[in-house]
TrEMBL record, chains A, B, C, D:
Organism: Actinopolymorpha cephalotaxi
Name the UniProt record assigns to this protein: Trehalose utilization protein
Short name of one Pfam family: ThuA
All residue ranges annotated as the ThuA-like domain in the record: 9-227
Highest rank taxon of the organism: Bacteria
Length: 257, 257, 257, 257
């Protein structure tokens, strides 16, 4: 918590496929979904973040070892091209998350290779894109990710995501949404994996202007700040198998690793 | 709980490599580690289980779709040949666990592909094989997996496993062990993934006769019984993405999946 | 799980105040709310349960040491007279729950002394009694408490309960409800305290015929079965401070408790 | 995390009984246990904290409404006089914790009225005071409370605390200790209750100079920083029952609380 003075280095990742294929999406997100997400983070964390973007079509999807090594928080949006993401890059991102890099997974990113790899489950859910009204309710008003947003957040039109959401029990359940159709969904969940923090937030879709919604942008910015590793955790060695125990051999002789 | 009358169909899997390579291990486990584990389950759950074994060298490692479809609980032991297990078989086992098949992971199985896949973390830990005494303490005396064993279970000689054990927080922490060297380890952990229950139990090693220890055998049998799916869960459809929401469209018209 | 053959001894507790004061409630629940709850448990667990009832106006509220000592599962309904329940009885019930007796807390029981004492929080929530439709969604289809009921359970008219529900994070979140007004609520939660299991289930109210709803009755019966202690846990000594450690003194001499 | 610039207002509470009765304790803690705890917090959080102390013998035990209303974090040490703490003061402290005040409970404070009230369980454990060596192992190296201390922390002489520790499952298990006798204990646990954070840390006793141990002092200071409410949470209304739901009546008309 002493490290809030420092700048959080954020990489906003987007597959950037719908924007190129569909005029309507391009009109909705002229800078791409990554552009809208990045703008929301910057406007809410002025002077606290250094934000860059990366997309699928770039070499190594823009997620080289160098980029990840200098990233404190990665945000992930994908939908139409999950299978186009190289397994090698997925393993690299997983290694960095387990080593302490924060990860914010957005909406349809629930089905991304990286989220499914970190969860170990199908991450399947129910869905229906028919302009439902979504209400995002805060279960933990004291949680930093819920700071400064009303309960509920009212999203006039949005894709419905419904339970059963096949994930491990989250470490913290911060938001639960209801939809016009009556469905419910765990829309804001935190997970710890290795040294890394992960936050999943479901609102947002290529077919609705949700990433322009000020409360949604505020939550994403809060999540970026919350998953950012502490200064002290940023340079932690990656966890690895340790050839000997710490303390002493059974005979009492020292055997520090 | 109405299904305890039925027989639990158990498949005990073992890589069966040390037993073939090392005379000492063969002498310790003449029927193989799978033979000792199977015998312990049968002696503790007489008339309640139907136990078969499967090993790495068999076609598809003995874990065909047919075998898994008729398995209620799979136990897993591996160490020297984790990388020899085919990814296709790992995916198949994962799918069955998420669909409701119980899984009991033993000792060095912490580094198996299937456990790492289900956990999403490195599953690394500290270790030292120098004949430490292990004490296995019960944290949840009411838990079915701890039924009928003393606290602590005293294992005169065992490999040390120590924290940090890089796993997601377990749903339940049933056992914690201490070792002669002073180390501690979360030696009995439960996890739910999809419709499946998973129990990890660390005591047991090819270099020590731990699978002949009556309390260790009792815990493994308890775990088999506890991860076994309820009758009602055994035929659950595998979780999958649902094309529409359940209840109604935003306009109120019915749209059941 | 070997103890399902035995009979589960259930005590259904009800303050039984609204039924005496209000004609409409008496008409809705001619046998009292306790009568309706008891009937639902008996019809769903024929031959597996021995059900008796107890009410506020009885000596010691019908919850003497003898009654509790011969109770496997206690269900609790209260609303208008929480403060009339004697602290001595609350302490007695708490002691039995921590010793292994199961507890099922229903609806407005969220504000009972016993639930607040076991939770340590205010257990406050939002509410509105205006004939909302409640949909009870299952998050854990494999959970024994969700066995045999549709998702969602549709309750045509019910009091709205909404978040923030001020409870500790439940060990398992089995059901989440939505209401016509758009609110959401964690309507089915499990907790472990000491050796005892607790299940909170929110549907049900004196002003609506919810305890006649077959799915609600099924869930309550499932919960009774699920919180019932295993045979092996029924006679566990109450947890207590232990005057010495288990294993050995620092000098190595034995010092078993 | 934006609030680390502000000063954290800490009140260190101590029953201060052993120090007055026993020469040896007075010699060990000439400023009282509260003096040693306060000094450890101040030396580790220079310029970040404003620390005062309060003790049992003061009016209202030094914990008036005014004192608590201007306290961000309360630390609690008690042992010989738990029953001397007025229930009215316990209720007051509970209300402030649920409203957002942080609480750090130390060692024998496990049996304090306030901790037992917040946990809802007996909080019993095993103990033996025979100069055991305690090793405090970190399970979560990335956790802010574990920042800057070795794993294990080596405490040459300490009272043994052993499982079963009768508490609800902690939200996070940060430290587990082993003792010379072979016992294990969950020595560092976090809990969220209402808007408040609670951290229990077991090392420390009147009969050993543990509160002079630099690593123990560091952990206590880390815990104070970690349970301190965010600026945004400090003025949160105390949670309370809400007379109406938030959103709309079943007929769609507005009915904001």
């Amino acid at each position: 918590m002493t490290d809030t003075a420092r700048t959080i280095r954020v990489t906003v990742w987007n597959e950037n496929v719908h924007e190129q294929r569909e005029e309507a999406v391009r009109a909705r997100y002229p800078e791409g979904i990554h552009g809208a997400v990045a703008a929301g983070i910057e406007e809410n964390l002025k002077g606290q973040v250094d934000v860059r973007t990366a997309t699928l079509e770039q070499p190594e999807h823009g997620l080289t070892e160098e980029v990840l090594a200098s990233t404190d928080v990665l945000t992930w949006w994908g939908h139409a091209a999950h299978d186009k993401v190289a397994d090698e890059v997925v393993e690299r991102v997983q290694r960095h998350v387990l080593g302490g890099m924060g990860l914010v997974v957005l909406h349809s990113g629930h089905f991304s290779k990286i989220f499914r790899t970190l969860m170990g489950t199908t991450c399947s859910l129910r869905w229906r894109s028919e302009h439902d009204r979504e209400l995002v309710w805060t279960l933990k008003p004291h949680h930093p990710v819920a700071e400064g947003v009303p309960s509920p957040i009212v999203i006039p039109e949005q894709e419905m995501y419904g339970e059963v959401f096949d994930i491990p029990d989250p470490d913290e359940l911060v938001f639960v949404s209801s939809f016009s159709g009556g469905e419910v969904f765990r829309s804001g969940c935190s997970f710890h994996r290795g040294n890394g923090r992960i936050f999943y937030f479901s609102p947002g879709d290529q077919a609705y202007p949700v990433y322009h919604h000020p409360d949604v942008r505020k939550v994403i910015a809060n999540a970026v700040r919350w998953v950012a590793p502490a200064e002290s955790a940023r340079d932690l060695p990656r966890l690895q198998n340790c050839p000997t125990g710490w303390y002493e051999n059974a005979d009492g002789s020292e055997a520090r690793a």
